[in-house]
Design a protein that fits this description.
The complex is a heterodimer of chains A (313) and B (330). With 313 residues, chain A is of the alpha/beta class. Chain A has ten helices and 14 strands. Chain B is 78% helix and 1% strand. Chain B is built from 13 helices and two strands. In chain B, strands 1-2 form a two-stranded antiparallel sheet. Chain B is flat. The relative contact order of chain B is 0.12. The chains are: A alpha/beta (313), B mainly alpha (330). At the A-B interface, helix 1, helix 2, helix 4, strand 7 and helix 7 of A face helix 2, strand 1, helix 6 and helix 12 of B. Chain B: Belongs to the binding-protein-dependent transport system permease family. CysTW subfamily. Chain B: Keywords: Cell membrane, Membrane, Phosphate transport, Transmembrane, Transmembrane helix, Transport. Chain B: It is a multi-pass membrane protein.
Chain lengths: 313, 330
């Protein structure tokens, strides 16, 4: 009897410790699940997470592509506004969107529109487009090709063209380097470069650095990278004779680009709002955005919605 | 008692009484000292017990909640999203965001098994061979030099293995065999290197545990050193060596990062050992961050995790059975 009661005491103690950990750390997956479920039927609750007190830490979670820009901006913002706390974390666009939708994060960073992901209450989220990222089809320098028509590109990625000599290059086999099916970069490339045609199976890697390394070392390899990851070890291919650069992207002459989004649940307030305003300001848009390899969203001459419809600004 | 006078009697009685009284007091003091719980000690006892118990309880709770959590998420693929278990285990096409969504995980399962078996095939002879060298052939040099060197391999982070594999092994396979390079073979070799120290050290312990008498007896019967090693030492250490291999396989099965970097991650079925393939772990790590909690895609990844968990339970079961066998042999 006595031993049992002691054991129960130990159990309760541990239970209390566990419960304490759980409530402090909203990112614990166990904790997250019921929140996601309950967020939809309880809209009254929806404004709460977006309104932290002035000195409450702001968390920006999600896209690893956008992470360097947000990290740099957060660093500058914190040094200008002492007492503010902004934590930037990676985890992927899906993580960012689900965390902001559940209220676990103040800002969800994403490479894609929330509307494009199933299971996200997109109407509850407010989109802040902070930058534009261009993507290029990238090949090993030895393929002997520097321009592809869209038709050729689709042929290569769907597996119909299997040798570079079919598009006027060297006699090497084509090796595809894809992103995972759920990747935001793949979604953009799939929609705007391949016109929705299904990619053939190839090597799959998630990190841009690894993709670049594989393309640079594998003869006949082709993949796609954000413009900020280009260097001399790989060759960016022109699409229909149009080079992937800032001038062609701001006019949509080169169509393979995407917004980088920072979502908030409801309209932002407090530090969150101040931070987002700071990112949209000239200081970040004119300097940090360019330095981290993005295109300032303020310089875009066109606008694109979640369905891919482009309108002149 | 003598009756000399009332005074004397009382004196004696007094004395005796006092003595008895003191004795009784001392006894009761001792008794209380010995029988009554010491407050400090009992407090220490209690806290020690409580700490040890809460550690054990914490571990138990952690394990149970992890299993419950993974199972509840992983099973919802089948019960909430209505994916058939047979399709999941045997289907060849993995396209959870397609129309219609397809959840065929067979190529991942096959990949995990093939790469694990390949790693075990390469690492087991090497590890057991090294263990024999260290115990039977050159013990001083082996224990002083070879063992620490092999154990050093444990400390290398898996991302480093992956990066070395990507930089050295993949180009080597590509040039040597004129294939892509990212392949089952590359994954198996990287894993073999990773599980080598596990196999070696467990096999070393098993061989060490073979009684010296048995070796002496074999020698006395005229067996050569090689005959002793093969028929006596290895025979005696067989359950231990099997444990070593299963332990290594369990580690290989769960390894994610290093394999992901060199195996190519394609969901197509391989035609040869030089073709790329995907594993359960790489399918999870590549997609987990990009999927939304609660969607069928995310749940399907949890199902893959559940499958991994069941596999490691299976490996542990084998280890338990092997461990029992080892005891029976003695």
């Amino acid at each position: 009897m006595k031993r049992l009661s002691k054991f129960m005491m130990a159990l309760t103690l541990v239970g209390a410790i566990l419960a304490g950990c759980g409530s402090n750390n909203a990112a614990t997956p166990q904790q997250e699940q019921p929140k996601t479920d309950s967020s939809a039927p309880a809209p009254a609750d929806s404004n709460k997470p977006a309104e932290p007190a002035a000195n409450e830490p702001v968390t920006a979670v999600g896209s690893t592509a956008l992470q360097p820009l947000v990290e740099q901006a957060a660093k500058d913002f914190m040094s200008k506004n002492s007492g503010t706390q902004i934590q930037v974390q990676g985890g992927g666009s899906g993580t960012g969107l689900s965390q902001v939708a559940s209220g676990a994060a103040s800002i969800g960073n994403s490479d894609i529109f929330a509307e494009e992901k199933d299971g996200i209450p997109a109407q509850e989220l407010v989109d802040h487009k902070v930058a534009v990222v261009g993507m290029a089809a990238v090949a090993n320098p030895q393929v002997g090709v520097d321009n592809l028509t869209k038709e050729q590109l689709i042929g290569i990625f769907t597996g119909k063209i299997t040798n570079w000599k079919e598009v006027g290059g060297a006699d090497v086999k084509v090796t595809l380097v894809n992103r995972p099916k759920s990747s935001g970069t793949r979604a953009v490339f799939h929609q705007f470069a391949l016109d929705g045609n299904e990619e053939a199976e190839g090597i799959t890697e998630d990190s841009s650095g690894t993709v670049r390394k594989i393309i640079s070392e594998t003869p006949g390899a082709i993949g796609y990278l954000a413009l900020s990851y280009l260097n001399e070890s790989v060759k960016a291919l022109k699409l229909d004779g149009v080079e992937a650069n800032k001038d062609n992207i701001v006019t949509n002459k080169y169509p393979v680009w995407a917004y980088e989004h920072m979502y908030t649940k409801g309209e932002p307030a407090g530090t969150t709002k101040a931070f987002l305003d700071y990112i949209m300001g000239d200081e970040v848009q004119g300097k940090t955005v360019v330095e981290t390899g993005f295109i300032p969203v303020t310089e875009m001459k066109v606008e694109r919605d979640a369905q891919g419809n482009v309108t002149q600004k | 008692m003598n009756r000399q006078g009332s005074d004397g009697m009382t004196m004696i009685e007094k004395n005796v009484g006092r003595q008895q009284h003191r004795l009784a007091r001392d006894k009761s003091y001792l008794q209380s000292k010995l029988l009554k719980p010491n407050k400090k000690q009992s407090l220490e006892n209690f806290f020690g017990k409580a700490i040890a118990m809460s550690c054990a309880a914490l571990l138990l709770i952690a394990v149970i909640s992890i299993i419950y959590f993974i199972a509840s998420k992983g099973l919802s693929t089948f019960f909430v999203n209505q994916v058939s278990i047979v399709d999941f285990l045997t289907g060849l096409k993995w396209d959870p965001e397609g129309e219609p969504a397809l959840f065929g995980a067979f190529s991942f399962i096959l990949g995990s098994f093939l790469v694990t078996v390949l790693a075990a095939l390469v690492a087991a002879p090497l590890g057991i061979g090294a263990a024999i060298f260290m115990n039977e052939i050159y013990p001083t040099f082996g224990k002083k030099f070879v063992k620490p060197v092999i154990e050093l391999l444990v400390g290398i982070p898996s991302v480093v293995y992956g990066y070395v594999g990507l930089t050295v092994l993949v180009p080597f396979i590509r040039e040597r065999f004129e294939v892509l390079g990212f392949s089952l073979l590359a994954g198996g070799l990287v894993l073999a290197l990773m599980i080598l120290p596990t196999i070696t050290s467990v096999a070393t312990d098993a061989i060490e545990a073979v009684p010296q008498d048995m070796r002496n007896a074999a020698r006395a019967l005229g067996a050569t050193r090689w005959q002793t090693i093969w028929h006596v030492v290895l025979h005696g250490a067989l359950p231990g060596c099997l444990t070593a291999i299963v332990l290594g396989m369990a580690r290989a099965f769960g390894e994610a990062l290093a394999v992901q970097m060199v195996i190519g991650n394609t969901s197509k079925l391989p035609e040869s050992i030089f073709d790329p393939i995907s594993t359960l772990t790489s399918a999870i790590t590549l997609n987990m961050g990009n999927t939304i909690q609660g969607t069928a895609y995310n749940n399907a990844l949890w199902s893959l995790a559940l499958l991994l968990l069941l596999m490691s339970l299976f490996f542990i079961m084998i280890l338990r059975i092997l461990g029992r066998k080892k005891l029976d042999n003695r």
